[in-house]
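Structure ticket #2291
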Amino acid sequence: MLERRANAQVDELISKLPEELALIVQQYRLLILESNSAVIEDHKWSMPSYELPESGQKMYIQVAKKIREPWVHVWGRFVRV
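Resolution: structure written out below.
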């Protein structure tokens, strides 16, 4: 089921990350997709983005280029992971 919901562009983006960072981003990705079957994954602004259509809530995972650590942007706030 998750294979059909996963976005191929997000797969490609994750595959280009350093291995340790890719594992972290992939774990967050799976957590988000498994949390609610209505979550839609997309590739926007060069990062994985997620939306709950019924509420309009959006979030995305951003990897800071200089420090190479993932951050999650949730409803207007950045959370370092």
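Closing remark: The longest strand covers residues 57-63.
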